[in-house]
Design a protein that fits this description.
CATH topology: Rhomboid-like fold
Radius of gyration: 17 Å
Number of strands: 2
Strand content: under 5%
CATH superfamily: Rhomboid-like
Number of domains: 1
Distance between the termini: 36 Å
Structural class: mainly alpha
Number of helices: 10
Helix content: 55-70%
Order of helices and strands: HHHHHHHEEHHH
Largest sheet: 2 strands, antiparallel
Shape: globular
CATH class: Mainly Alpha
Oligomer: single chain
CATH architecture: Up-down Bundle
Length: 211
C-alpha cells in the first residue's frame, strides 16, 4: 500500500459555503469594532502585545478586523469573487485550511518582521494577506481566466498576480507611507505558494509559465 504523507492526505470533498461564513464574520466584527472601538486594540495584531503580554490570538484575529469601510469592502469583494470559485474547486474544508494558513502565515511573518524593525507598537489589521493568497490560488487553479484591473484592463490571472506582487514589492522597497502592510500581502502570496507546492503538489510557477 502506497504511503501517503500526512501533509498531502486528501480530504473528502464537501461544499458548505464557508466563503459566506467568513464574510459574515468579517462584517460582524467590523460592526462590533464600530460599536465598541476598544475591541479593535484587542483583536488587531500588535507585536508588542503578542510577545510581551501573550496576546497570541491576535495572529488569527487580525485578519477578521478592518480599518475602515473601503478596506473591508475591497477585501470582502475579493473574498466573494475569488473565494466562491476556489472553494467549489477545492472543497470547503481544503479552502478554509488554505485561507487560514495564508492569513496566519502572513500574520506570523508580520509579527516577526515588525518586532525586529522597530514597528512593534503599530497594529496591523485586515484580511489582505489571505486575500493575496486567494489571488495566487485563483490564478493557479484558473490560469486562463481574465481579471479586469481597475475595471478596464483585462489581464490573465497569472499576469495579474505577478503585477500585484511587483507593486507590493516596489511599494515596500520605495518606503511608501500609505499605511498599507505591503510585506503582509507578499507573505500571503509566499505562504500560498508553499501550500500549493507542499500540500497540493502543484508548482504555481509551472502553471503560470507553462506556455
Amino acid at each position: 500500500m502506497k504511503n501517503i504523507s500526512f501533509l498531502k492526505r486528501q480530504l473528502p470533498y464537501r461544499f458548505y459555503n464557508i466563503t459566506l461564513t467568513l464574510i459574515v464574520m468579517n462584517v460582524g466584527l467590523f460592526l462590533i469594532n464600530i460599536l465598541i472601538p476598544r475591541s479593535m486594540a484587542y483583536l488587531a495584531l500588535t507585536p508588542y502585545l503578542v510577545i510581551r503580554q501573550g496576546a497570541f490570538w491576535q495572529v488569527v484575529t487580525y485578519m477578521f478586523v478592518h480599518g475602515g469601510t473601503f478596506h473591508i469592502l475591497f477585501n470582502m469583494l475579493a473574498l466573494f469573487l475569488f473565494g466562491t470559485q476556489i472553494e467549489r474547486k477545492l472543497g470547503s474544508t481544503e479552502f478554509l485550511i488554505y485561507y487560514l494558513c495564508t492569513g496566519i502565515g502572513a500574520g506570523l511573518f508580520t509579527l516577526v518582521f515588525n518586532w525586529y524593525t522597530g514597528l512593534a507598537l503599530i497594529p496591523v489589521v485586515g484580511a489582505s494577506g489571505a486575500i493575496y493568497g486567494l489571488l495566487l490560488a485563483y490564478a493557479t487553479l484558473f490560469p486562463d481566466s481574465r481579471l479586469f484591473i481597475f475595471g478596464m484592463f483585462p489581464l490573465k490571472a497569472p499576469v495579474a498576480v505577478l503585477l500585484f506582487a511587483g507593486i507590493a514589492l516596489f511599494s515596500q522597497i520605495s518606503g511608501s507611507r500609505s499605511g498599507i502592510a505591503h510585506l503582509t500581502h507578499l507573505a500571503g502570496l509566499v505562504f500560498g505558494f508553499i501550500y500549493f507546492l507542499v500540500r497540493l503538489g502543484i508548482n504555481p510557477f509551472n502553471v503560470f509559465f507553462r506556455r
